[in-house]
Structures are given as C-alpha cells and as structure tokens.
Amino acid sequence: MMHDAYPAIADLMRSGRVDTVQIPYNVMERGCEEELLPLTQELGIGILVMEPLEKGRYVKELKSQPDLTPLKEFGIATWAQASFAWVLGDPRVSVTIPATSSPELIKGNASAGSVRVLPQELRDYIQRETERCL
Question: Which long-range contacts does 113-122 make (Cβ < 8 Å, 24+ apart)?
Fold first, then answer.
C-alpha cells in the first residue's frame, strides 16, 4: 500500500512542521502500527485515519455475515460501525474519515463515534471476524 511513504512521513513528523498526519489504518491494514503510530504518540501528533473500511471493502465484499452479538452491548448494529469502533479504539487515533455517499450511512457511521472504547479482546474479535468473513 503506502508503506514505502512511511519513512518520508516519519521524517516530516520529526521535523516539527506538522501537527497531524493522514494515513490509511484499519482492521486489516496495520502497517503504521510499527513505526508511525508510536511516533505520533511520542511527538504528540494527531492521526487522521483514511480508508477505515478499505474503500467499502470491509462491508461490501464480505463473503459471510459477521457475528455482531458480542458487540451489541456497545451499541454496534452494523459491521461498518464495528470497523469504525476498531479504528477509534486505538487511543492514538484522533479522527477517521470514511468515504460515504449516502445520507443514511452517514448517520450510522457517525454513531460509531459514540461507542465507548472497546476492550482489546473485542478489538481482536473484530479483526478475527473480518478475516473470517472476507
């Protein structure tokens, strides 16, 4: 993906010229966890996450339906909300920006922002369910 740009992004972050960086990060694209996310935390730089649903792939291309049962008590009613909650559950993430064209989806996506931070075991569950269903 854009991993080859990570060294340049890290250098830019270290330069002190930016307060926020925008990177792809989602339940399956986790390349930024090794260097960039720890560096943002160290330097106090905000993270703007793009592609939290991998251009809709994690909701449109599922081969089977994920089990939302363990997530319902957190107010999660759709797999898109689960994916957003996974991203927003990382305390280093400031904001996530999904590409959404439907007003109905905007409301559902926004509601994921009110989900309290998921315990790590549920974040792990979302990752396993995503892998299982893709």
Answer: 113/84, 113/88, 114/75, 115/74, 115/75, 115/76, 115/81, 115/84, 115/85, 115/88, 116/74, 117/88, 117/89, 117/91, 118/71, 118/74, 118/85, 118/86, 118/89, 122/70, 122/71, 122/74
